[in-house]
Amino acid sequence: MSTPVTGPTHDRAFVAFVDDNYFPGFVVLLKSLTLTNPDVAADVVVLHDGLAPANVSRAMSLRPDLRFVRVDAARYERYTKGSAANYLYTKAYYILDAFRLQGYRTIVTLDTDMVVLDRIDDLLTLGVPFAAVPQFFDSDGGRKLNSGLLVFDDTYTDGTFAARLDAIGESGEYELERHDQGVITAALDGDYLHLPRRYNWVKRATRRGGVPPQETAILHFTGKFKPWDGGEHGYARLEALWHQYDMSDAAFLAACARLAEQGMIADPLAATSYKARGGAVPDAEVRGATGVLRHGARLRAEGDFAGAVALLESHALEVGQVDTAYALDLATSYRAVSRYDDAAVLAATALSSHRASEAHLSLAETAWVVRDLDGARGHSRAALALEPLRHKARLVHARAARPAPDAEVVATADPAGITLSHAAFYVDPLGNYGDVLLPAAVREVTTHVRGVAGWHGVHVHQLFDDAAVDAVNQTSGLLVGGGGLFLPDTAPNGNSGWQWNVPDASLDRLTVPLALVAVGYNLFPGQEFQGSRFRDSLTRVVERAQFVGLRNRGSIEKVRALLPAELAERVSYLPCPTTVLGLLPGTAYTDPADDAAERDVVYLNVAYDRSALRFKDEYAAFLAQIDAFVRGLAGVARVRIAAHTIPDERIAVDLFREHGTRVGVDSFFRLGIAETTRLYREAALVVGMRGHAGMIPFGLGTPIVSLVSHPKLRYFLEDIGRPEWGVDVSERHLGARLVELSTAVLDDQARFRGEVADARQALYATSVSALRAFLATL
Which residues are in coiled coils (predicted)? Predict the structure, then answer.
């Protein structure tokens, strides 16, 4: 990592205040500024109040010429402010330290929720003392400005203007809820050059579903919902412009290396660094087999599987040979990009080594994906013979030993009905309870609308090859989905880029009608699809399908933004079938005829997959809030853990270890559908972090509160018109808020169950109408 710059190196600067919460936004701002204006000779100054060392390191790796300047936070404690509940209560003022930066002829400040889409170097040569874009709403004839972008010269950094700002801030003689913007507006009183809105196009200036003007140079995501936190309904097309710069660090460095080779990087030290670090093999800190493996794992974690392959292959060619660990790692990467023959060859080289068990497991997984079940069973048995306790080998063997991928799915059948194929994620034994129930729910709703006598199961993670196509073509149609299949990393493949492992050629050979049923766009904030394979596959699937139903409107907006305009409107709304289970007569889920019992169990579900994305660095604080919630309901209700997976049980262990609080656990993944249906139906309330810890109890008539750590939970609540039933996991007073919501439900159970019933009925009507139109064509 380069040494941070300590003083000005140019007489012009771009300046941003950055903290750890907004760091994801800053990374995209930095990447977009660098790639759109690479040849601009100007410092990039990071004002901060104490960034995490990891964030400093990452920022320096992306832009070696960054200059870090710590703000004088104490100064702004003296300011008179508005509501203390606002996160920006104090930090919004820290950008005012830009007026204390010495040595610059011109300064341009940028908010970290901006993305630069075009050249902005002309802002550095305006030749006026102060310029900004007027506030979009209520600008008072232009007197009020938007402080997201400010341009000013050195007449504003001699101390006089900073003193003026301090006087106004301390007196409170400004629009308090506008924070720094209010102080600057009061100080200037309209005396500034009004820049065109293209330099600070705020999100709300575009209608929902629209795009900003083509000439927009800077897009500003004002408001509560940021692109890196899941975004906001109606703005997917704008957010797509942000996400095009939310590329992997490796891809960014490679792009900068190309610019540097063309002489387009202004700073010579940065250019040298980019040339050294932007190639296939990283710089010296990751050279050597161990470093390359570590970097390859990081690329795979970021979803850049093709980048991992390129990195590993490059090193292998450079050294001429690889050891066993390297061969197995490369085999894993090959499987992730659908180079199955290469994956098998590499894994086989390790069969005679001390890692033979791992090699057999790798070969078993590859064999299962390509539907070689005999090979999968043989290699998984060999792995277990060497390591009898190897859990993953047991799972692969059980998967390969099934007579059909959907052998455990139980659903109502209509003997007089049609035969359908169903491509879904059929989970392993003791797998996620929501995914266990989901395929059955899809089938129950389908049979309710149009009778189905039998089903042909297709596992989405297996290669949809010619034999699979031929089998499906013998049925009346193919339904794909029931879950968050638009996800790059659960079962990566290079054929489609999402969970259905479907090559384009197989899609072309399909002759029966195709429908996507309640599929979800399941990326966490910070995740992305690398390259164009997903977009290309998505386009071909939507072109081919007779029906495309996505399970929430948030997913619809994300997917429509990725499609050509002529295909976007083919994507429609089909709620997750678990949300209407209780309304399906003659099934195991049907609502009881008479149920007016008072209930005293509150179920709590906490998910731990992708914990870094769910909790960031705040798990200890989250756990303390959950403890406060559990203790707050003592004597009011019995709180129990609803564990959808084995890791979900961890919350009970952590609560006892860290806070001495004991909570009982019901392991839903072990209990079977009949028992879990009873438990969820008889609960007073379910407080859940998993999507199906909300949708399943809701579908059975039970009130819910969602712990929002993934946008899909908010999408569902907005779809049913109940956003107030969700609380973000980072909520400062999470425990108290959960106690408040839970107590309200416990005190008036009949009313809340009635509200669930009304919302569920609306989803039922939508589901039946949408499915009937497609199924009537079969």
Answer: none
Q: How far is CA 295 from the centre of its chain?
A: 22
Which pLDDT tens digit goes with each residue over 271-311?
Answer: 887 877 665 444 433 446 677 787 778 788 778 888 888 77
Average pLDDT over residues 173-200: 91
Q: Where are the alpha helices (DSSP H) in 484-576?
A: 504-509, 533-544, 553-562, 565-568
Residue type at position 277: R
- pTM metric for this prediction: 0.69
Query: How many whole angstroms separate alpha carbon 18 and alpha carbon 58?
Result: 13
Distances (CA, A) of 442 to 251, 518, 587, 603, 771: 39, 8, 13, 25, 11
Residues facing 133 on adjacent strands: 146
CA 77 to chain centre: 35
How far is the C-alpha of 243 from the C-alpha of 485, rounded, in Å?
Answer: 20
Cβ proximity of 405 and 426 under 8 Å: yes
Q: Are 307 and 295 in contact (CB under 8 A)?
A: no
Examine the pLDDT at 596 and tell me if it is beyond 70: no
Q: Which residue has the tokens 């390509």?
A: 370
In the chain, % of residues over pLDDT 70: 95
With 0-12 / 13-18 / 19 or more C-beta atoms within 10 angstroms meaning exposed / middle / buried, residue 391 is: exposed
C-alpha closest to that of 328 among 302, 365, 355, 295: 355
Contact 316, 334 (CB under 8 A): no
Residue 600 region, left (φ>0) first, then alpha (ψ -120 to 50), else beta? alpha
List, edge to edge, every strand of the sheet that includes 571-573: 452-459, 418-424, 478-480, 514-519, 547-550, 571-573
**Residue 543 structure tokens:** 């072109």
Q: What is the dihedral of CA 210, 216, 218, 221, to 10 degrees?
A: -10
Cα–Cα nearest to 555, from 206, 225, 226, 233:
233
Phi, psi of 493, rounded to the nearest 5 degrees: -150, 155
Question: Measured between alpha carbons, how far is residue 577 from residues 53, 126, 197, 717 in Å?
Answer: 45, 58, 45, 15
pLDDT tens for each residue of 134-158 = 998 778 888 899 999 999 999 999 9
The answer for residues whose C-beta is within 8 angstroms of residue 445's C-beta and 6 or more apart is: 577, 580, 584, 767, 771
Report d(CA 70, CA 315) in Å as an integer: 40
Radius of gyration of the CA atoms of the chain, in A: 28
- A 10 A CB-CB count for 118 gives 15
Number of C-beta neighbours around residue 274 at 10 A: 27
Distances (CA, A) of 147 to 132, 257, 442: 7, 33, 50
Q: How far, CA to CA in Å, does 643 sit from each of 30, 115, 382, 651?
A: 41, 40, 32, 9
The number of beta carbons lying within 10 Å of the beta carbon of residue 606 is 29
Per-residue pLDDT tens over the stretch 688-744? 999 999 999 999 999 999 999 988 999 999 999 999 999 999 898 999 999 999 999
Q: Which H helix or E strand runs over 548?
A: strand 547-550
Q: What is the 3-state secondary structure (H, E, C) of 554-604?
A: HHHHHHHHHCCHHHHCCEEECCCHHHHHHHCCCCCCCCCCCCCCCCCEEEE
What are the chain's domains?
12-243 (3.90.550.10), 280-401 (1.25.40.10), 418-574 (3.40.50.2000), 601-764 (3.40.50.2000)
Distance CA 293, CA 309 (A): 11
Strand 114-116 to strand 218-220: parallel, antiparallel, or no bridges (unpaired)? antiparallel
